[in-house]
Amino acid sequence: MTHDAGVTSALRDWVAPDIGMDGPNYRALIREALKFKQGYPDRAREVLLGRAIYFLFFNPSLRTRSSFVTGLSKMGGLPIVLDPDGIYTPALPGDEMPYATERISDVARVLSEFGDAIGIRMYGEPAKWVYGHAHRCIEAFAKWSGIPVINMECDRFHPCQALADVMTLTEKLGSLNARRLCISWAYSGSWHKPVAVPQSLLLAAAKCGMDITVSHPRGFELDAGVASTAGAFAKESGATLRFVNDFREGINGAEVVYAKSWCSLTCLPKHLGSPVNEARMTDLFEQHRDWCVTDEVMALAAPEAGYMHCLPADRGQEVSDGVLDGPRSWVFAQAGNRLHAQNAIMTKLLNPMCLS
Q1: With bands split at pLDDT 50, 70 and 90, how would you rate the model's confidence at 5?
Q2: With respect to CATH, is domain 159-335 assigned 3.40.50.1370?
Q3: Residue 269's CB: how many other CB atoms inside 10 A?
Q4: Per the database record, which ranges form the Aspartate/ornithine carbamoyltransferase carbamoyl-P binding domain (predicted)?
Q5: What whole-number distance in Å separates Cα of residue 90 and Cα of residue 139?
Q6: Sign of the C-alpha dihedral, residues 293, 295, 298, 300?
Q7: What is the predicted pLDDT for the residue at 4?
Q8: Where are the alpha helices (DSSP H) in 39-103?
Q9: Domain ranges of the chain
Q10: DSSP label at 218?
Q11: Which of 55, 215, 240, 351 has its CA 20 to 30 A from that of 141?
């Protein structure tokens, strides 16, 4: 691939920096992003003047779409949002339909002739709920593209959200070493949320030396390979990591409660064309309707603990209005950092000297 020589190998594609970027480089990126935010908007003006990025959203989006488009526009760049249903839908070999799809290798090489980067958001139904299929599509874009590829959320990772999350944690807590974070599953009336957010947060927090508890009912385990990688990062940073199956035990004493819903990987199909085991998925969800963050539950956390959620939140299911709208909610500061995290990512990829 013909990327800018000034971009480090760990950042050539923002496809899975969660796995590929080591702890020291990731912590350095957090510092760069926070510093870049402090100079916003003056420091960012015209940083990406004339740069064009293509954004493909296979899934609905509010924060990701608006923050990327706003950020790139204010930095002088040109955001071009492509509707996957309005073009020949990009597809992997074996998933193609005549005159309806176009092989990803061809799409990536064509867009590389026109623009400076490609952003892709894909998970769930567009990937037929086969875990890892959406990530393989993004990896195929990266393989064939001559320009950087940004993962705007897939079925395995959400690196842009994770960077915004650790920026927010740093602003609220200062040093993250040994600070107590609970990443908890929470009930939703829909099972359709992927594991991308908790998995990326787990990896990011492990790189930052946090004391991490992952709390979920049995049947909602995260990817074992991701958990193992988080353990390896924890050894380097001094982080601690434990998994529990009790909602209140996980939140007890936490300084940060990050509670949201995610699907059960055990109920997803292994192959394209196979169905989701919706009956079992629904049964697993309905057994745990009490996994909702209320003021009573937050009282179990540390006295100054904050609540976080990537949004959109299912009010009255994942979290009560009192918590989400209350003084302990860090959710909207967290959402605001999506803009700054992604500005830093785009700048790091396309004009890295402006972050120094």
Answers
A1: very low
A2: yes
A3: 15
A4: 25-171
A5: 13
A6: negative
A7: 37
A8: 63-74
A9: 17-157+338-354, 159-335
A10: T
A11: 351
